[in-house]
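Researcher: Dear colleague, please comment on this protein.
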Amino acid sequence: MADSKGLTEEIDADEGLKSKRKLLTIASLTLLALSFSGAKIEEANSFIFKIKFAHQNGLAILLVISIIFLMVRYYNYAKKYHDRLYDIWANRLISRSFFYEVNPHDNNEDAGLVADSRSDELDDIVMNRMQYHWSYSYRSSFLFRRFIIHYWGKEEYGDDDRVEEINIFSKFGSGIYFKTLFFEAREQFKSFFTHRENLDILAPYFIGCAAIASYYFNAELQDLLNLISTNTKK
């Protein structure tokens, strides 16, 4: 199982990731400040000269383009952490009894989606303790496709020479499928409050998307702010 503590320490030590996160956050907060307050940047100082901005809308578009570019650059550095975070929450999810549990009084009796999704051949291997190794995982795929993956092979070789993918919706129907999505959503939501590495990696995307949305929906944002301000004064 992936090590959450080790991942947190690795994120904290990654200087490249931190620098890209800082640039993305500063650009995003600058655009958010312009969108929320209606402020204008009159000029920018450098070591050589001052730049005065005559076209403020052009500056906002430049910030939007910069944020998109910085989000791509940030993702380049964060991709390996996305994969690790996925492994961590997927392992926590599939450890629930809904997915798999073994009878504490009889090791030959198990239950849950993992056990129910095994083929007859694999079930014989697991239950009869034949000379095979077996493991399983949970996979979230595009268009809300969810799978339980079985890996097994002969112990003498040590490799997983057999892989079996079970589509949860096709195998168990809509009831179990939507229950699986509920458990998945709850696990991911809970992770933002109990495992800080999730926000460490994902927060810059949230801020960047909010900044871009604040530019394209600025009129709606100002109407909302005026409504809140009016109600607050009452």
